[in-house]
Every structure is written in structure tokens, then in C-alpha cells.
């Protein structure tokens, strides 16, 4: 999903009205946990409560376009940032540092994701 504005601000407005947001997944980087085309629930969670094993939704700015991602927290690095592991479509692991201001919420697994 690519848009030229701040996605986090849109999610923040939505979270004021409801504690959970449905989001359709796109891509294969989190397969088989999250499958392309599935809809999952995203909930707001305080940065200090995010732990290893959580799947976070976050925004990154690339080439002046804001993109939204959902990836697994591999390791926390202090209180300043979170370390995520990402798998691309070729199965090669990619590592990315995501800062607290980029985090939108966490994917809630185990519930109805339709």
C-alpha cells in the first residue's frame, strides 16, 4: 500500500473511534502467518508493551511515499527502537530497524480474520 501522506495519522484517527481496525494484508513476506489477501485485526498497543514475537504494523517513508508493513518483532533494542525480521518473496531474510514513531499497531492473531 503506497500513499503520499502520513498513514499513522489516519490510523490514530480511526483508533479514537474503535479499538480494532481490520486491515487486508498484501504480499508474501509474512507467509504462512499472514497470507496475501487475508484480513486481520490491528490493535493499538503501547510501545513499551510490544514484545518479541508480536507482529507490528508500521509505516516507512521511501522515495517520498509512505508505505505500510506488517512484520515480526525479532528483538527489541533498548527503548529507542524495535528490531524486525522480514522475509522477502525469495525467502531471504531482511532486517530493518523500526522506530517507535513509525509503529501503528499490532496484528491480533487467533480471532476471526475474515
Descriptive overview:
Helices cover 10% and strands 46% of the residues. It is mainly β. Strands 1, 2, 3, 4, 5, 6, 7 and 8 form an eight-stranded antiparallel β-sheet that branches. A hairpin with a 3-residue loop joins strand 5 and strand 6 (81-87). The protein is globular, with a radius of gyration of 13 Å. The two termini are 19 Å apart.
Number of helices: 1
Radius of gyration from the CA trace? 13 Å
**CATH structural architecture:** Ribbon
Q: Major sheet, described briefly?
A: 8 strands, antiparallel
CATH class: Mainly Beta
Give the class from helix and strand content and strand pairing: mainly beta
* CATH-assigned fold name: Umud Fragment, subunit A
Assign an overall shape.
globular
Q: What is the overall pLDDT average?
A: 80
Order of helices and strands: EHEEEEEEE
What is the tally of beta strands? 8
Low-pLDDT runs of 5+ residues are none
